[in-house]
Design brief:
- By secondary structure, the chain is mainly alpha-helical.
- It folds into two domains: about 1-100, Orthogonal Bundle (Rna Polymerase Sigma Factor, Chain: A), CATH 1.10.1740; about 100-175, Arc Repressor Mutant, subunit A (Orthogonal Bundle).
- The protein contains seven helices and no strands.
- It has helices spanning about 5-25, 30-45, 55-85, 105-115, 120-130, 135-140, 145-165.
């Protein structure tokens, strides 16, 4: 597959990959960095991709792996900061970059989604936001189709349970 085909793949899927990463990270700058890295890695591996490959699912898999690595690194950083704060050598320097990027209604929903285990969160986003089928989700998360379906189901159950009793605004207010 040539460079023209790669450019067509980028044009066709960049926006969707970016939106997936934005929903997964909830930060535009991180989504930007991760989507650029996704396409950089895709470009490096493009020539080895079989001609009959599902490019969309392949790109989501790269993005998912990068997202996993990102969250692992972020967790290590948070733990390190918490340890430093516990010793009293770091002052509370949370600034405006920590402010929410979305309105209050979205924040409530995102908080619930953010608390989901990583595989459930990614499966939920891939299914409900990006409308991937369970086999594509399974391939991206490196699990069976049945496991992908279970991850989405468990995520939905936890989201419903967490939001039970909370009155959310109508759809127009979420835009």
């Amino acid at each position: 597959m040539g460079e023209d085909a790669f450019e067509a793949a980028v044009a066709a899927h960049h926006g969707e990959i970016y939106r997936y990463l934005l929903r997964a990270t909830a930060r535009a700058s991180e989504a930007d960095d991760l989507s650029q890295e996704t396409f950089l890695r895709a470009y490096r591996a493009w020539r080895s991709l079989p001609p009959d490959a599902n490019v969309r699912a392949w790109l989501f898999r790269i993005a998912t792996n990068l997202c996993r690595n990102h969250f692992r690194a972020e967790k290590r950083r948070r733990l390190a900061h918490a340890e430093v704060r516990a010793t009293g050598t770091l002052r509370d320097e949370d600034g405006p970059e920590e402010a929410t990027l979305f309105n209050e209604a979205r924040s409530a929903i995102e908080a619930v989604v953010d608390r989901l285990p990583l595989k459930q969160r990614l499966a939920f986003i891939l299914r409900k936001v990006h409308d991937l089928d369970y086999e594509e989700i399974a391939w991206g998360l490196e699990c069976s189709g049945e496991s992908a379906r279970a991850h989405v189901f468990q995520a939905l159950r936890k989201i419903r349970r967490s939001l039970d009793g909370h009155e959310l605004p109508h759809a127009e207010a979420l835009r």
